Amino acid sequence: MAIRGAPGLPNELIAALSVIASVRDVGARTVLVRQRDRVHELGVLLAGRLATVVEFGGIGSVQVETSQQVGRVFGWSGIRPGCRATETVWAQTDCTIVTLPIEQVRDLLAANPQWAAPLYELIAGALADRARDLQARTIDAERELPNG
Amino acid sequence: MADAAAVLRWLHGLTLLDELEPPDREYLAAHGRRCELQPGQVLHAADHEGDALWLLIDGQIVLGPPSRQADGPDGVTRRSITSPGYPVGWDAMVWPYRHRWDAVATTRTRALRISRHAVDAHRADDPGFAGRLAAIIMWLAGEQVRRQHTRLVTRQYDHEIDQVSAIIAERAPELRVTSPLHRIPTYLRSRPTVADALRALEAVRDGADAAESEIARSVLGMLEGLRGEWRVYRALQRVYETAAGFPDGVPAREVRAQASRALIELFDRTDHRIEGLENLPAEPGNIVISNHLGTHPSNRLPNSFTVILDTHFISSMILYRAYGRAPVRVVRDSYWYEAAHERYYERLGYVMVPSSEPGAPATSSQRAQRWEQFVSQASTVLGDGLDLMISPEGRPGPTDGSPGRMRIGAFRLAATLRPEPLIVPIALANFDLRLSTTVLNASVMAPFRISEVVDDPTDTEQLLIWVNDVLTPRFRQWVAATAALG
After folding, report:
1. B168 and A57: CB-CB below 8 Å?
2. How far is A26 from chain B (nearest CA, A)?
């Protein structure tokens, strides 16, 4: 699996995830995850470009990121039971993605609790990288703002 | 926190780590070492291998990119961490096990340091602990991404109330339906209920729900400016009640003095700058003129009365402080529907002049009678050794382009009175802006007598030309320079 840090996953976990994973093509403008909806799939980008949109009350929907990074994970917030999507992710171009049904991922982790840490850490690492890159982008954007 | 038992009690109370189980906390308490950090001390640097987790006890740590300046601030806004129990250094507990950002203490800070070696050893021994810790880290990482999303969007919005409303709305699905956070945007939009918003936020911050506590903490950090404005608003309310609440029979001079003292308490809470105090005459009993600025609408009191800040600043912070005597202002009569305005000014003994109410215009006889009355009152004020404050514009406006059109009444008055009084100009800037984002500036300019600047000050035409062509442009330069004081 072409995600940064994935080689650190136990082989048994990779094998188990591969069994439930599906690779499919989605057309441009397909909504993959919708903010506040229940999450049905954990997804990984293999090719194409994804856009992330966040709806802010009183402001509206704002596109906050685009990514062509192979291994970009989406739908991660659905891994914890009862949690809903915190952002909307849609295919800005035709994309190839890997999807894993979230219920089956949860069942795997419940049956094999030793796999929770490596999977959560993998996702956390990817999110930390995103946060760092977003912060750099925000700082650059703030430096461009006019004074006054 | 003297021993492991105390550390354990502290860990049990941390909502941020409520996913951990008692054996997890016992392990951390046994292997943690309390550290005291000085301002500027670096806990970890970006791209370095992680060697510890630091659970914040108290103080402040900022997370962000390495500073771009060798010394001093670099103008970059970083994430402030003040939540007790926040595990600084989590970003290197995940692959590639190198920090994504710097962590620097900005105040004297205490933290519980647990070595990476101890964390890894327990993760290896107890997969359950490893999973629980990883779940906490995943939540923190997701929250970090959300913060950056919010910052990307809300940097477009000057007003922190809009930012706070946007943040709470975006996080609404995570909140309990009964959460007080849902009420915060409504409370914040009315100045009298800002205190209720702050109290509710503080209660949520200190409450048991980790997610809501984190949101409340973040929002409170954004509202520091508003908190300062609210303190000024409370002081405005006290000023109004001080002046309007005096019983009949108390001399106006005493009411003005007490109001001035309340105003000084108010303005001492603001950022302000006064230049040119050396230009004030040695004794009061002069005509003091100034440009007239509006007050930000957020300072309107619940009874719809607005305490105009600029003239109150002059009367208290400049004249009362200099001479120990509160001046008398020339103020327009209240309109028939302005009960609060009437109640306030009635007790202060000001010189009231007719307002331009709709209706039949005054006859020339009525205007002459009003003028004589005004001159008589003004003469009495100056003769009592009090300053008389007049805003020649009559109406307030913004700092930009101030003053607008100035009327000649103050200068006709000066030309009429004997002995001829000094006229002391004071330029004002920024009183129309939000108090939390500005510095209130005032400049006392050199005093003059009208006979020194106009050949025949009793000639209305000459006065008009001098006011329009000489004084007004010069005053605008003074105001612009005053605005630039910083």
Report:
1. yes
2. 25
